[in-house]
Amino acid sequence: MALFRYKILTTAGQAEENVTDIPVDTPIAAHEYLERNGSMVISVSLIPALLKPIYLVRNSYYKRQIKRGDIAEFLRNLAIMLKSGVPILEALTESSENGSNPYLSFVILDIKSAVESGVSLSVSIERHMDIFPKTVFYMAKVGEETGRLDTTLMDAAQHLIKIDRIFVDINKALMYPLFVLVFALGACFFWLHYTVPNMMELFVAMQVELPAITVAVLDASEIITTQGPTYLAGFIVVILCIVQMYKRSVLFQYKWAAFVLKTPVFANLIIQSNLSYIFEYFALLSKSGIDIRNSLGIISDAVSNPIYSEKMGKIKVGIEAGNRLSTQFKSVGGFPPVLIRMIATGENSGRLSEQMEFIASDYATKLQDAIDKFKLMIEPMSVVFVGGFMLFMIVALFLPVYDLIGSVTG
């Protein structure tokens, strides 16, 4: 696979110019590859090795722009067309031309080209695992093996929509306290940088005896005014270091996840979101006929929380050793007893797949309840926080003024 710059005329009659990976090594092969996708090639050239890192960073940025919703839309449209009897190559062509994300459209064309050359859809998707979740690959593979590709792709699309909704709900819940924090920091900076210095000039001119709380605020204002840029730069450096440590250090990720799970405000929200996420995956994979061992491996890779990812990995090891699923959930800890009993009931009755769907639905409801409770709890706490800050500043700055007015009146 090499990096090529190309200019083509699409089947819709539109000129398109881009730089992307093509699974060939020479411009001639790239020319043929693009023509197989139905495009009229105007020009194609190999990117020099020195410029390749720049374009790789650029393409990495574009790949990050492909959201779960884009992938879900592609899978849903593909499933509908396959169910309607449209051949898979025509369905892939239609999906690439009508997609909302241009980079995903090119990926779809690459999948079409691979399928056209005799490669299965699942293997074609596997070539783009940096874009598609591992679940999509397994669902496509199961669909091909069972002859129910349209059904499994629709299930995968609905699954991605549900997972995306979990993240959207969590982000909405966290948006309010984040907004309040930013507002409070902005108000603090405004008061300390603009208001307090003017009040300090008044106090000095009137020779007012200042209480300790006012002196502390004046000292903080002087630091912000004289050394503000230095502290701001240091704060930004610390944040960037923390972000890089989180990205690069598995131990740091684990410690941070453990800390968050112990915070009284966020713990329940994090627990419910992870359980909802895990059993949404479990329900889909069990329904599709994927065995428990592979399901646990997929879930372990998919869960972003390192603590729950580790738990699922340990459960997988226990299953490979011949233990029951419910026994393993109990042994790793961190899962409610009622949940373990529900899993055991599903195992004993031979209806584990149906039980997983019920658990997933139940935890989706519990997650929504946890989000609602979080909002109800965080809103008054935010009001008290901001109100307390404003009261503190008013008392610190205006108490000496009242003393001054009282002494003048006296």
Protein architecture, described:
Helices cover 78% and strands 6% of the residues. It is mainly α. A hairpin with a 5-residue loop joins strand 1 and strand 2. Helix 11 (267-287) runs antiparallel to helix 12 (292-302).
Write the layout of secondary structure elements.
Elements: E1 2-9, E2 15-22, H1 27-36, E3 40-46, H2 52-64, H3 68-83, H4 88-98, H5 102-116, H6 121-126, H7 134-146, H8 149-206, H9 212-248, H10 250-262, H11 267-287, H12 292-302, H13 306-320, H14 325-332, H15 337-349, H16 352-409
Antiparallel strand pairs: 1-2, 1-3
Instruction: Using the CA coordinates, give the radius of gyration.
Output: 29 Å
Uncertain runs: none
Average pLDDT for all residues: 80
- Per DSSP, the total helix count is 16
Largest sheet: 3 strands, antiparallel
Name the assembly state: single chain
How many β-strand runs?
3
**How large a portion of the residues is in β-strands, by DSSP E?**
5-15%
Strand line-up in the sheet with most strands: 2-1-3
In angstroms, what separates the terminal alpha carbons?
A: 88 Å
**Helical proportion?**
over 70%
Mass-distribution shape: globular
Structural class given helices, strands, pairing?
mainly alpha
Element-level helix/strand string: EEHEHHHHHHHHHHHHHHH
